[in-house]
Amino acid sequence: MIFDIEASGTIDREPVTLTLDAKNPGRKWDGISGNYRNQFPDKDPMVIDYCLDSLRVTWGRISMWWENWQPEEGVNPTEQAKAGKLPKRVYEQMELAQKLQQRDIPVIVSVWAAPDWAVDKNNIPKKGVHLDQKKMDQICESIARYLIYLKLEYGVEASMFSFNEPDCGVEVYQTPGEHAIFNKAIGAYLKSKGLATKMLLGDTGHGTALAGQIVWPTINDPSIHPYIGAIALHTYHGCNTSDLNEWDRASKAMNVPLMVTEGGTNSAAHRSPLVFLQPWFQLGEIDTYIRICNLCQPLTIMEWQLTSDYSVLTGKGLYGDNGPLRPTQRFWNLKQLGATPAGSFWMPVSGNRPNISCAAAGDIAKGIYSIHLVNNGATREVTITGIPELVKSFNIYVTDATRGMKKIRTIPVASGKAAFTLEAQTYTSLIND
Asked: N or C: which end of the chain has fewer CB within 10 A?
């Protein structure tokens, strides 16, 4: 078939003014991070090593494989583990956590599937499973044994623990009340065992305000607060301005960091994997991240994943490409965002035109400032005001369909103001590095 397509409309080429408020720094930024849920042993290692060697990864999140750790209630999983009787993937996941630890990358441990003995067979949700509330002591003990074994045998003390996407049952479903009850029970139990591991509140599959309601019973109960390390969301099925404002409000209500523990725009994209290589898809992903950075000031954004699943690399059979292993546009997006120095503080920045997302951060101690823009529209002129006086110039980096974090020019800054041409359909960063 042959289709003729015509489009009409007014192209927005109006100049843009961005206003930076460097006098009101917000919350801290660690950097970009990744999920490491081992699933494809033939391809995962090469992607993991490439990304660890090429990106400044600041956090890692692994799967506990709880259903394999203790499949039977009456069996001591620690003894089974020491005897080498557990499935290979349990040990491989712990070895990967150790690899992250060796690079000083803190580790979050999350559970997807629960063992059959921990499931409430009389309370079946629409999706996933409920934990058996009568077995909370046994559940806490089983999880604690894993975390202790990980610490003693592999030298990794998990920074935080969570159930993956409890708001939508992937695969353990919790009501907001159950979520609070569990956070308190497991938090107190881990503390009693001498573990410093905190709970990751939320870790929701949806980035909507509705999903965020799961965190409020915990927020409203001060007795649970000592056990909470951060509030977390995944970026699927939401993340409009009102959604993100609610997540920001929740993290500020408890005064803990907000983390994006799974970054991406389509949780089902694996069903049509070539979409990951489409320029519009790749630009849309970084656009989501930049809007989150502006509205929520996250501690980190953790890509799903930095393995061969939803890979940010292609080649070696990934996406049907048998060429050499190499970065995609999504990889360069992460690297460019990750160039914002660790320890920077997010700073308010706003623009006066639609279709341009922006975020800004400053490492005040070192005098390094980073301004990020995603232009979803046409080329236009941009003026940035409110730049600190100590900044005399910015290097401009661009990632798009043909360029990967390419330095295109250096522009001067005078009297707190800079002007430049923002190219169409680009992710552009200004850094005085």
From this structure: N
